[in-house]
Design brief:
The chain has 487 residues and is mostly beta strands. Helices cover 3% and strands 33% of the residues. The protein has one domain: TolB, C-terminal domain (Neuraminidase), CATH 2.120.10. The radius of gyration is 21 Å and the shape is globular.
Length: 487
């Protein structure tokens, strides 16, 4: 098992999408920021120019960005066609559609055609064998997508439905792999207490929510009209909410990154300090096999102790392991409350070799790390070698669980981002041509942790509740190996 303080080669890319400024808007630099020469459009290895300010994203050396589209809505997940068409799933319907289709017609990587369709919001999105899959909060649908067509033709079909309506953790993220459809059904609770989020209330044992929630359900990809209770198989359980769900194509293996529980101190003040509650529990990345149980709500993973421990609702004291020794451990444990919302395994050939087969994890950031600063506004990269997550002990590469993520102190740089109109953009990240490097623009408010001259971690300090509700997702264009960010 690898946890963040032991990751040695991590790329983090982050784009701020809601509540601050448009992605292509410039602003004066902070007085403490390094000077920056006037930037001109940079050329990538594919020949198309990047934006002069890289879409206001701070990027590692050797990468640049282009704003594909702006002000689309609150995006959740992306899907990218082989020909570069981009599909954006919106949290809610806006301007007549819950899905936005984008097409570049002149080769500059910017959307020249924008179409909207779908009468529902949601999260999950995928492309496979001439079909576009998308989920609402209660079903997964598909449309036929003919060759060269930007928008689907014909009526949508229900692939899997009958999921329970719920007030929280309702997102039905999805993954396609091995001829099957995998759907996350989040648990509509924090810790399955007898009185929800009440101080000192014990947990229900067994937790009745696990019958239809708190797990991954499996369906046949080629069938329609399936329902959770009649056709779905509970593939894995004990998972609070895995919005980040993906199939590793090389391993033929399902992975997830789940949202950990909240409020250890406010619910159990005699057992946890505010500082401990700000850091715990970990956001767990797990390898998922049929029949796996990850232990929610009975257990959580303590990345400081490096073990799964019994939750206080079930008699735990912060150290006792008990029944938790029988549950699955994570392969990577990220700092608490970062809120992972996207997972993608890089299989392209454009980025350097060290990225191939590794995992990009997108976080939308915390709301409950007080009294410490909020954190997690980033997209991070976790390397894999030989099918396993790898890493060392570099705290600079990835701030340790005991270290405030938004106060990295090693070789940091800061920039300001002027507030302006709402910015909701899709950005394409590409490898920069060797001869075309330009200075990092002073247009955004990031802290950049560096190790041996390579930017490894980007953090956006939160400024308001809108920022804390921003959503991020990473997705490369098939065949080109580029990375798309949206929110």
């Amino acid at each position: 098992m690898v946890y963040p303080s032991r990751l040695t080669s991590i790329l983090a890319l982050c784009v701020l999408l809601v509540g601050l400024a448009a992605c292509n808007e410039r602003s004066p630099a902070n007085n403490n920021a390094p000077s920056s020469a006037a930037a001109s459009p940079d050329t990538t290895e594919q020949g198309a120019p990047c934006d002069p300010d890289d879409g206001s994203i701070a990027l590692p050396d050797g990468f640049c960005a282009t704003v594909v589209a702006d002000d689309l809505g609150t995006a959740r997940h992306l899907a990218v066609q082989d020909d570069g068409d981009v599909y954006v799933k919106l949290r809610e319907t806006e301007d007549g559609g819950g899905i936005v289709a984008l097409r570049d017609t002149d080769g500059d990587y910017k959307a020249d055609v924008t179409k909207r369709f779908g009468d529902f919001g949601g999260t999950g999105m995928a492309l496979r064998n001439g079909h576009l899959y998308a989920s609402s909060t209660t079903a997964v649908y598909r449309w036929t997508l003919p060759n060269d067509a930007l928008v689907p033709q014909g009526q949508r079909q229900t692939v899997a439905g009958g999921f329970p309506r719920q007030g929280q953790h309702a997102a039905k993220s999805l993954a396609l792999g091995g001829g099957d459809l995998y759907v996350n059904v989040g648990a509509p609770a924090n810790a399955c207490q007898e009185q929800s989020r009440a101080t000192g209330s014990p947990g229900q044992d067994p937790c009745p929510l696990l019958e239809r929630h708190g797990g991954i359900w499996q369906f046949a990809l080629g069938q329609t009209g399936q329902t959770q209770m009649e056709n779905g198989r509970r593939f894995a359980t004990g998972i609070r909410n895995a919005v980040a769900l993906a199939w590793h194509p090389a391993q033929q293996q399902l992975y997830l990154v789940q949202h950990g529980r909240d409020q250890l101190h406010s619910l159990w003040p005699d057992l946890y300090t505010e500082e401990e509650s700000a850091e715990l529990p970990a956001e767990e990345m797990g390898r998922v096999d049929e029949g796996d149980n990850f232990g929610w709500p009975y257990c959580y993973y303590d990345q400081i102790k490096d073990q799964k421990v019994l939750a206080p609702e079930y008699g735990g004291d912060g150290s006792e392991v008990g029944r938790c020794s029988s549950y699955e451990d994570p392969v990577v444990a990220f700092p608490g409350h970062w809120a992972p919302n996207g997972l993608h395994f890089y299989t392209g050939d454009q980025f350097p070799d060290r990225y191939r087969g590794g995992a990009f994890v997108a976080f939308h950031g915390s709301w409950n790390r007080a009294p410490k600063p909020q954190a997690g506004y980033r997209v991070s990269f976790a390397p894999f070698e030989g099918g396993e997550a790898t890493g060392g002990r570099s705290r600079t590469a990835f701030p340790a669980a005991r270290t405030s993520a938004v106060r990295a102190t090693r070789s940091t740089a800061r920039w300001d981002w002027r507030r302006g109109r709402t910015g909701r953009c899709i950005c394409r990240i590409r490898r920069r041509a060797a001869s075309g490097a330009s200075p990092t623009p002073a247009t955004s408010r990031f802290q950049v942790a560096r190790s041996q001259g390579t930017s490894l971690a980007l953090i956006v300090p939160p400024t308001d509740r809108q920022l804390r509700q921003s959503y991020l997702q990473a997705q490369p264009a098939a065949g080109k190996g580029e990375l798309h960010l949206a929110g």
